[in-house]
Amino acid sequence: MLDNHGFDLWADGYDKSVDIADDKDLYPFAGYKKLMNSIYNAVMVKCPAKILDIGIGTGTLALKLYEMGNVITGIDFSSEMLNQSRAKMPNATLIQHDFSKGIPSELSEEKFDFIISTYALHHLTDNEKIRFIRTLLAHLDNAGTIIIGDVAFQDRESLNKCRMACEDGEWDEDEFYFVYSELQDELLSHCTMTYHQVSHCAGILKISPIIRRKVCCG
């Protein structure tokens, strides 16, 4: 697993390496551009929107949303990746922070129309993902949505099939990929969730809080 120094070193070549893997339909970035376009289109339905991008990286997706007038807040633990995002989006709020420790304190009272994350949350264990998503639900504005695009699978069988198809040493055993059926079972009482498989190793989760209406008596 890369630490923040590793991501700093990778910052300059990150976008290029992702494009190469996507073009060759290779794990882990097969379907990358399609995934990014789908999230962009989902957010633009509500433009201008207030957006939190978790693991904003070099700002590939956030920049497109920023250019259309959306208000961007981004967090990432790589200072070099944030420097690249800051150069592209001077009016965005960008915070260096390790999201495995939760939401940064300066955002504790903030709410957003969309919370998005692409290819970042697989660094959290399955239990950490569940706790983090529950935390994020509290930071959504009315009718807000969490949209996660990542290495993801409909079920555990699909994940194992992808792992077996990888050549020796290619599969990253230090990462924890989304399994929709298992995540849905754990979060059923907290939110509504949909899932769309984009490629053989990537998918998009859309998560919204359950709105419980007050019953008036009288």
CATH level-4 homologous superfamily: Vaccinia Virus protein VP39
**Content of β-strand:** 25-35%
| Terminal residue distance | 58 Å
Helix content: 25-40%
- If classified by CATH, what would the architecture be? 3-Layer(aba) Sandwich
Pick out its properties.
218 residues; disordered N terminus; 8 strands; 25% strand; 37% helix; 8-stranded mixed beta sheet; Rossmann fold; alpha/beta; 7 helices; globular
Give the gist of this structure.
With 218 residues, this protein is of the alpha/beta class. The protein has seven helices and eight strands, in the order H-H-E-H-E-H-E-E-H-E-H-E-H-E-E.
Question: What's the layout of helices and strands?
Answer:
Blueprint: H1 4-23, H2 32-44, E1 50-54, H3 60-67, E2 71-76, H4 79-88, E3 93-96, E4 112-118, H5 126-137, E5 140-153, H6 156-165, E6 178-179, H7 180-187, E7 191-199, E8 202-209
Parallel strand pairs: 1-2, 1-4, 2-3, 4-5, 5-6
Antiparallel strand pairs: 5-8, 7-8
Helix pairs in contact: 1-4
